[in-house]
């Protein structure tokens, strides 16, 4: 069995997805969950890029001790020094530095000669090495680079002490065949790659081949995969962690293993959806809502007779459990607490009280309370507990054919602000009223409503992307009332802009 290192970059490449803006607290919560999931390395951010990123990376470095804590930096002295400042408290720190490698990027973007690029490689790796033993080097756009030049860059990085060489398919142009060959040639050229020096791959999904490319790289000598939860990341995203982990878990003939605790997958995926506002497509492998649903008669018949007729993974393997306890409107505090502990959720007392209050309110209207309902409630309580702006009241009026009028009351640190507005539709009127209350000019650029469970009594989950001063912010909110969920989501997005 070859042990594969799982390098999670949800907090760095994943956060580069447009509209995701996680707070340092959100990032710490995600890092803690990634730790429980068993990833080997967490790429926590790009510290020079913003003070928020720096804060998040340092917070995680000081609080999460088992995995390697990695920070990204360009090949610039200041970047590398700042990356080190951010991770220096970590028990296992790593600096990841990168230099453009393809002719296209070197000529058209960097505007340097090969010799100058090679100087950057030596400088970056040796500078990082002054601070920390564990240094990862990436020749960016490696799959479009001149092969001999790529070899020179890698040789130089290793000579200067790189402990990990990462091969990015930055634009997602490789096929499994071409990527597998490239990895094979690199191992032939540097036999210690994949052994004394870790050989990593970082595949983008522009042509839908990121997971296949990562897998074939492992079969040809790579021993680290960079990936993200739910496949988030720049453009079409990166190799999805849950896919690579479950391929390895499901197919023993591959003779590969990871440290991923697969029963944590489902929960991690939901946490990322809730905090980023990026929902998962229904038919997404492993974590999509339909990944274990059987709808055709023949399939249902087979699964009822024996689940392995149409199911290659048992849902429990990724942590989808059927709770022993069933919650309903007669359930009391004790049953609710038990249910939370079955979900491994523990809340501070005041959050518990609020979650219980919301549960009772929902149970009055909805016959069957599911795990997804409870998670949505807990998530709402935790998010609103940390927020500066709160929705205190919302009223919507207007007959069919009239312009709806919305009145809102929003509070900040106990101080209430009231405002009203008209809009072409209910949601635009809500946005306009919140804009008036907060004296901000937000514009909805994307709006999505999902039902948390099946049935017409489901809670609504709304994701809203809002443009404020040319930057997009995302907010999400859930409630039994779709308009209230919309107001919460909009308010969350604009309060990120105000923060
Ligand atoms: O896609 C890419 O090339 C990257 C590098 C920084 C590794 O994200
Ligand atoms: Zn990338």
TrEMBL record:
What Gene Ontology terms describe what this protein does at the molecular function level?
2-isopropylmalate synthase activity; metal ion binding
Record-linked SUPFAM superfamilies: 2-isopropylmalate synthase LeuA, allosteric (dimerisation) domain, Aldolase
Its top-level enzyme class, in one word, is transferase
Q: Which organism is it from?
A: candidate division CPR2 bacterium GW2011_GWC2_39_10
Native organism taxonomy: Bacteria, Bacteria division CPR2
Family as reported in the entry's similarity comment: Belongs to the alpha-IPM synthase/homocitrate synthase family. LeuA type 1 subfamily.
Question: Know the name of this protein?
Answer: 2-isopropylmalate synthase
User: What's its EC?
Assistant: 2.3.3.13
Q: Which UniProt keywords apply?
A: Amino-acid biosynthesis, Branched-chain amino acid biosynthesis, Leucine biosynthesis, Manganese, Metal-binding, Transferase
Entry keyword annotation includes Hydrolase: no
Show the Pfam families listed in the entry: HCS_D2, HMGL-like, LeuA_dimer
Q: What SMART domains does its record include? A: LeuA_dimer
> Which Gene Ontology biological process is one annotated for this entry?
L-leucine biosynthetic process
Q: Which residues form the Pyruvate carboxyltransferase domain?
A: 4-266
**So, what pathway does this thing act in?**
Amino-acid biosynthesis; L-leucine biosynthesis; L-leucine from 3-methyl-2-oxobutanoate: step 1/4
Known InterPro entries for this protein? 2-IPM_HCS-like (IPR050073), 2-isopropylmalate_synth_dimer (IPR013709), AIPM/Hcit_synth_CS (IPR002034), Aldolase_TIM (IPR013785), LeuA/HCS_post-cat (IPR054691), LeuA_allosteric_dom_sf (IPR036230), LeuA_bact_synth (IPR005671), PYR_CT (IPR000891)
């Amino acid at each position: 069995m070859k042990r594969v290192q799982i390098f999670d970059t949800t907090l760095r490449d994943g956060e580069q997805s447009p509209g995701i803006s996680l707070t340092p607290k959100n990032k710490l919560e995600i890092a803690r969950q990634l730790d429980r999931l068993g990833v080997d390395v967490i790429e926590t951010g790009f510290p020079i890029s913003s003070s928020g990123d720096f804060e998040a990376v340092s917070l995680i470095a000081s609080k999460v001790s088992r995995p390697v804590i990695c920070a990204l930096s360009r090949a610039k002295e200041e970047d590398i020094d700042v990356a080190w400042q951010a991770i220096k408290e970590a028990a296992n720190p790593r600096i990841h530095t990168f230099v453009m490698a393809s002719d296209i990027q070197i000529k058209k973007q960097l505007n340097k000669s090969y010799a100058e690029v090679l100087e950057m490689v030596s400088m970056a790796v040796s500078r990082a090495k002054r601070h920390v033993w564990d240094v990862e080097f990436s020749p960016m756009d490696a799959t479009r680079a001149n092969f001999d030049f790529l070899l020179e860059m890698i040789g130089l990085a290793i000579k200067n002490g790189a402990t990990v060489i990462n091969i990015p398919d930055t634009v997602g142009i490789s096929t499994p065949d071409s990527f597998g060959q490239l990895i094979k040639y690199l191992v032939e050229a540097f036999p210690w790659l994949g052994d004394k020096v870790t050989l990593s791959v970082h595949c983008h999904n522009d042509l839908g081949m990121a997971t296949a490319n990562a897998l074939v790289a492992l079969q040809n000598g790579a021993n680290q995969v960079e990936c993200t939860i739910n496949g988030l990341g720049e453009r079409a995203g990166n190799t999805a962690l849950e896919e690579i982990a479950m391929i390895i878990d499901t197919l023993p003939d591959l003779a590969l293993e990871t440290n991923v605790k697969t029963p944590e997958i489902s929960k991690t995926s939901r946490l990322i959806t809730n905090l980023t506002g990026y929902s998962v497509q229904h038919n997404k492998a492993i974590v999509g809502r339909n990944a274990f649903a059987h709808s055709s008669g023949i399939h249902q018949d087979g699964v009822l007779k024996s689940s392995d007729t149409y199911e290659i993974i048992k849902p429990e393997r990724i942590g989808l459990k059927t709770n022993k306890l069933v919650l309903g409107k007669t359930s009391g505090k004790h049953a609710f607490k038990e249910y939370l502990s079955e979900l491994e959720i523990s809340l501070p007392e005041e959050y518990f009280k609020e979650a219980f209050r919301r549960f009772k309110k929902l149970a009055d209207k909805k016959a069957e309370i599911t795990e997804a309902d409870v998670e949505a409630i807990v998530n709402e309580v935790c998010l609103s507990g940390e927020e500066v702006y709160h929705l205190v009241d919302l009223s919507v009026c207007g007959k069919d054919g009239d312009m709806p009028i919305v009145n809102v009351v929003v509070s900040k640190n106990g101080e209430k602000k009231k405002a009203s507005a008209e809009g072409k539709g209910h949601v635009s009127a809500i946005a306009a009223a919140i804009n008036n209350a907060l004296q901000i000019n937000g514009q909805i650029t994307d709006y999505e409503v999902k039902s948390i469970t099946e049935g017409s009594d489901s809670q609504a989950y709304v994701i809203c992307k809002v443009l404020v001063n040319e930057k997009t912010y995302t907010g999400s909110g859930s409630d039994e009332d779709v308009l209230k969920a919309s107001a919460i989501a909009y308010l969350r997005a604009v309060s990120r802009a105000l923060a």
